[in-house]
Amino acid sequence: MSSMNRAPSSHRVALDAVVIGAGFAGMYMLHRLRRLGLSARVYERGDGVGGTWYWNRYPGARCDTESVTYSYSFDGALEQEWEWTERYAPQSEILAYANHVADRFDLRRDIQFETSVISVHYDDASRLWRVTTDRGEEVAARFCIGAVGCLSASVLPDYPGLEDFQGEWYHTGRWPHRAVDFRGKRVGIVGTGSSGVQSTIAVAKEAGHLHVFQRTPNYSIPAWNGPLDRAAVSALKANYGAWRERSRYAQIGIPFTPNGKQAKLVPPEERERDYEAAWAEGGFNFVMAYPDLLTDLESNRTAAEFVERKIRQVVKDPEVAKLLTPNDHPLGTKRLCVDTGYYETFNRDNVTLVDIRSAPIERITAAGVKTRDAEYPLDVLIFATGFDAITGPLLKLGIVGRGGESLNAKWADGPHTYLGIQSVGFPNFFMITGPGSPSVLSNMLMSIEQHVDWIAGCLEHMQRKGYDSVEPSRDAERAWGQTVHEVGHGTLYPHTDSWYTGTNIAGKVRAFTPYAGGVGTYRRICESVVERGYEGFEFSSTRVAAAAS
Ligand code: NA7
C-alpha cells in the first residue's frame, strides 16, 4: 500500500515538517501542511492509514460517536459524497473512509508506511528536529507534529504464563488482519471497557462458549444502532454546515441542547421522564441529560440509579445483574460504554460472567485462565485490557528537546502543556489532541480538525512574520496547567481509577489530564489566544530578532 515504501536508509533529508502517525490527525495535518506549501513526510508504523481504526479490528469494533458527526468537516464535497450506512459506523467502514480520504487528497505519496519513529531529538545548533526511524533513517525537519492518537499504546496484563498458553490470543488494539474464527470455540475475554463490551456482544454470537472476565463493571448506554435513514441524512447534508458549527461549540463536540437544570433538584417523576427520553435517544448524550451529572455526586447518583435499574430489568439472573452493576465510581467517570445488546448478551446460555475482582486471575496456563477459584479451559483468549492513554503514545517516541531535556523527564510528575498543543522546551513540536486539551472528552475528529487548523494557522502566521520557531512561555504553560487542574477538579473525574487518570498503568503518575471545560469553551480560548497575537506563545527567528508577534 505504501507509495514511498522503503526509503533509502541513513539518509538525512531536510523537510519542513515530520508528522508522526497517519490516522485522522496525521492525514489532515499533511493536507494542511501541503496547502501551506511546506514539505512534509508522515511516518506510520502500520501498512495503511487510519490509526485507531487500522489497529482496532476486533469483532464488533464500532465508533461510539454517530457517523455523521464523527467525520471530517473540512471539505464540503467530501462530506457530501461519503455515505455512511449505519448510525454508528463499524470499524471497517471508518477504515474505508480513511482510505477514501487518503486517495481523494493523494496523501499516500508523502506517507512512509511500516516505519516506526524511535527518537525525536531537537538539535540546539541547527534548531531542527532530528527524527530517527526503525529503518535506520534520520531526517531533519523544522517542525515535528505528534499525531500519535490518545489510545494507541495498547497494554497487556502482566499475568504469568501467557507464553505457556496453547490457544490463540489477541489484544483488541492489535487485532490481526484476518478473520478470527470463534465458531464452536471456548473463548475468554478479559476486560469490560468499550472494547470488551463491543467484542463480547459480537463474539457471543459465534463462540461455542464465552467467558467474560470482569474486574470492574462499567456503565453502558444503548446506542440503538441500525441503518441510517437516507431521508434524514439528506436533510442533514442539506444543512451540514450548521450541524458542524453546533458540533464545534458543543460540550463534547456532539450537538446537544442542555436543559440547564440540576438533576438532584428535579422532581423524581420528571427526572425519570428525562432519563427515559435520554435512554431512548441513546449514546453519550445520556450523560448530558443534566449539565451537573459529571460535577455533582448527588445528581450523578440519580442517573446511575436509573441505569442500574435498567440493568436489573434486562439481565434475567439477579446474581449476574448484581455483578454487572457498577459499584465503585460515578457514572461517566470511567469512559462510558455505548452498546447494542450488551446486557442482553448475559442472558445467553453460552455466556458466563466471571468475577475476577473477588477471585483474581492468578496465571495463564497451557489450557486457559486460572483464577483463585477455578481454571477455565479456552481455545481463544482476548485481552480487551486497554491502553496507556493520552500521554503514553507521546512518551514512547523518545522525544528530547532543547538542552537535552527529555519529555519523559519533564513530564515525570504529569504532563505540562500549553493548551495541549505545545510544551516548553520543545520548540516547534506540536501535539494533536495532547494532554491539557479536551482530547478524549470529545468527538475526536472534531478536536483533531480544530488542532490541525490551529497549528496550520500558527505556521501560516510564522511564514507571514518570518519566524522560524515557536514555543509557549513558562508562565503561559504554568497558568494553563493550573486551569486544567482546577477545571478537572471541579468535576467527578479525578477521583475515579481509570485510564482518564492514568491509574490503569502501574507506576504512572495519577493525573487527570484532559481539559474538562468543554470543547466549545476550549475552542473559544484557542481562538482568543490567536486574536491576542498568539498570547502565551513566543516566536523567534534566526533572521528576525523577535520575542513575540
Ligand atoms: P479500557 O476502557 O481501559 O478497558 C480495559 C478493561 O480491561 C477494563 O475493564 C479493565 O478493568 C480491564 N483490565 C485491564 N487490565 C486488567 C487486568 N490486568 N486484569 C483484569 N482486567 C483488566 O480499554 P478499552 O480498550 O475497552 O477502551 C479504551 C477506549 O478506546 C474506549 O474508552 C474508547 O475511547 C475507545 P479495570 O476497570 O481496570 O478494573
SSE layout:
Blueprint: E1 12-20, H1 24-35, E2 40-43, H2 52-55, H3 76-81, H4 91-104, E3 111-112, E4 117-123, E5 128-133, E6 138-146, E7 168-171, E8 186-190, H5 194-204, E9 209-214, E10 220-222, H6 230-238, H7 240-248, H8 268-281, H9 297-314, H10 318-324, E11 337-339, H11 342-345, E12 351-355, E13 361-364, E14 368-371, E15 375-377, E16 380-383, H12 392-395, E17 399-400, H13 407-410, E18 429-431, H14 444-465, E19 469-472, H15 474-489, H16 519-531, E20 537-540
Parallel strand pairs: 1-2, 1-6, 2-3, 4-17, 6-18, 7-16, 8-9, 8-16, 9-12, 10-11
Antiparallel strand pairs: 4-5, 5-6, 13-14, 14-15, 19-20
Helix pairs in contact: 1-14, 14-16
Bound molecules: ligand NA7.
Termini separation: 43 Å
As for the number of domains, it is: 2
Determine the strand fraction and express it as a percent band: 15-25%
CA-based shape: globular
Give structural notes:
- The protein has 549 residues and is of the alpha/beta class.
- It folds into 2 domains: 3-153 and 389-548, FAD/NAD(P)-binding domain; 162-231 and 252-383, no CATH class.
- The chain is built from 16 helices and 20 strands.
- The chain has helices spanning 24-35, 52-55, 76-81, 91-104, 194-204, 230-238, 240-248, 268-281, 297-314, 318-324, 342-345, 392-395, 407-410, 444-465, 474-489, 519-531; strands spanning 12-20, 40-43, 111-112, 117-123, 128-133, 138-146, 168-171, 186-190, 209-214, 220-222, 337-339, 351-355, 361-364, 368-371, 375-377, 380-383, 399-400, 429-431, 469-472, 537-540.
- Strands 1, 2, 3, 4, 5, 6, 17 and 18 form an 8-stranded mixed β-sheet that branches.
- β5 (128-133) and β6 (138-146) form a beta hairpin.
- Residues 1-10 and 544-549 have low confidence and may be disordered.
- Ligand NA7 binds next to α5.
